[in-house]
């Protein structure tokens, strides 16, 4: 499916609204980027590696991981081969969260496809009013 920028934003909005309605954990963009990187790219993942991949500081990654760990979406484990290194691991909670989030994206994309033109016209008018 090809989308223009308005449809993409509406897809993002609809997905976020579904998350709000389902009372899923409220993740920052950085936390979500880290979570998706850990789950969608090949392991192993370390704080240093995630910081390099995302172009942010190690303390920023550490703070995001603190929150993801509190929520049970990721966990840290000391690397047995190099005790100075900490590995970031996936969890069942993180798997469930992202599976549900993915399902919400798919459902939202159907809504955009079915209702997209009306919403784009409304969005265009709103952008012109607030620009």
Descriptive account of the structure:
Helix 1 (5-21) packs across helix 5 (92-130), helix 2 (29-40) crosses helix 4 (58-70) and helix 3 (47-54) crosses helix 4. Helices cover 68% and strands 9% of the residues. It is elongated and about 55 Å long. It has a single domain (5-130), classed as Orthogonal Bundle (Arc Repressor Mutant, subunit A). It is mainly alpha-helical. The chain has five helices and three strands, in the order H-H-E-H-H-E-E-H. It has a three-stranded antiparallel beta sheet with strand order 1-3-2.
Fill in the keyword field for this structure.
single chain, 131 residues, mainly alpha, Arc Repressor Mutant, subunit A, 5 helices, 68% helix, disordered C terminus
Layout of helices and strands, plus pairs?
Blueprint: H1 5-21, H2 29-40, E1 45-46, H3 47-54, H4 58-70, E2 74-78, E3 86-90, H5 92-130
Antiparallel strand pairs: 1-3, 2-3
In short:
Helix content is 68%, strand content 9%. With 131 residues, the protein is mostly helical. It has one domain: Winged helix-like DNA-binding domain superfamily/Winged helix DNA-binding domain (Arc Repressor Mutant, subunit A).
Number of strands: 3
CATH homologous superfamily identity: Winged helix-like DNA-binding domain superfamily/Winged helix DNA-binding domain
Largest sheet: 3 strands, antiparallel
Class derived from helix and strand content: mainly alpha
């Amino acid at each position: 499916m090809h989308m223009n920028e308005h449809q993409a934003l509406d897809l993002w909005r609809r997905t976020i609204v579904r998350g709000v309605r389902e009372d899923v954990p409220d993740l920052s963009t950085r936390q979500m980027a880290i979570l998706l990187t850990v789950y969608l790219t090949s392991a192993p993942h370390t704080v240093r590696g995630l910081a390099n991949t995302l172009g942010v500081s190690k303390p920023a990654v550490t703070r995001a991981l603190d929150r993801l760990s509190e929520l049970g979406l990721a966990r840290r484990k000391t690397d047995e081969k190099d005790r100075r290194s900490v590995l970031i691991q996936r969890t069942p909670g993180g798997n469930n969260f992202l599976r549900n989030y993915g399902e919400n994206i798919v459902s939202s994309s159907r809504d955009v496809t079915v209702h997209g033109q009306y919403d784009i016209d409304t969005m265009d008018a709103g952008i012109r009013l607030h620009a």
